[in-house]
Fold this sequence. Notes:
By secondary structure, this protein is mostly helical. Helices cover 53% and strands 8% of the residues.
Amino acid sequence: MNVWIPWDADESEIQQRMTIREQIPKELYAPIQAWAIKHVGRDAYGWTSGDRIHMLCSAVQFPFLDGTIRADNRMKADFFVESAAALGDDWLLRLVDFLLHESEYYSNSYPNSVENLIWHLDHTGSAVEVARVDGAYRLSNRLVSGVEEAGLVATEAAPGVAGRHLSAAWDAIRALDPDTGKAMTEAMKAAEVAVASVVAPKDDRLRMAKYVNRLKDKQDWDLVLDQRDDGHPDHHSLVIGALETLALAQQNRHGGEDPTFGQAQAHVMLASLIVGWFSTGSIDFHDKSQPSDSDSA
């Protein structure tokens, strides 16, 4: 989050400015509505065609506008955006999200448009940010600085299939309306693929419990981090505990409720760590011919 810090700000003010706030802080209402009004489209007098208004209503599925478009098939752009905002923050953000999604269609008319919105979101500490998703700009949940970068490193280091699952997990958790169940499922799949590529590369049936048992039974591997002379911290227990935590969370989902956002986010972060370890050689087998194919039988 790129935030301007006054030259005379003390520690308390710096912390306040760097803190992620609500989705639309009070300072953001005017600029985000002005941004939306401009991108809804309007003539020199501020009018938007009824066809454009109906298109936006269909896309966002607004529950209003019956009888509000004039007989000459037009509406004031500012009235439209204000009506969306009056429905609540979620509806205003949905409108902005759609306008972002189609932003490349009018990039020539409004240069630096996306950058301007990012500037306002950053400097007001909004809990949402602009992300690139499937080739288009979208609003997404803002993550604490450093968390997303760590996930990106793991995603880029992972084998193709594991990387795709991990990327899907991050997309699900960062969405404006997070899909926590999908995030956990994709994170688990990413971890299973990454672990299998090291522990049982020829096993075509992904089973985390089997890989955990293999790592428990064998002592021919290490996590390439420093230990004391007496063998502490116990890296075997650390790795196995992390894998079992992932597996347990997935098992508990069967027939149950979707996890909370906090649970899903923690799950995706843990899976990213596991994927990173198993994709970058951080799990080191003493005998490079290990594990043998018989271990996956």
